[in-house]
Predict the structure.
Amino acid sequence: MANHLKELYSHRSVPELAASRSLFAFAQAMIAAVWAILFSESGLSDSKISFLKVVIAVTVLSVSLILPRYLEKLDESKIYPLSLMISGLSLIAVAFYKNLAVVILAFGLAQMLYVVRQS
């Protein structure tokens, strides 16, 4: 194989990865707007929704300070798809079970996995 073709072949996955991450970022932005609606449909007041989001944000912030030490030992090519699958499954669980506990768990998990993907 010619040298320039080898270089082109080795960088071919970069646009695919960029497209995947861009599409996921767009979907994440759409889902971020829906969480408050899901919480209010589950019976929470506006103040409880805000309190819940703050508690989860502080928890995620605390974990994000510790998490990079553990994630640097793992392969990103395995972590990223796994985190996408877990996020997808949690959203499917919310679609089928609109229980308050499931919505809160899925929201916390989605926020935590977002930090994992960014680390």
In short: The mean pLDDT is 81. Residues 13-41 form the longest helix (29 residues). Helices lie at 3-10, 13-41, 46-71, 76-96, 100-118. The chain has five helices and no strands.
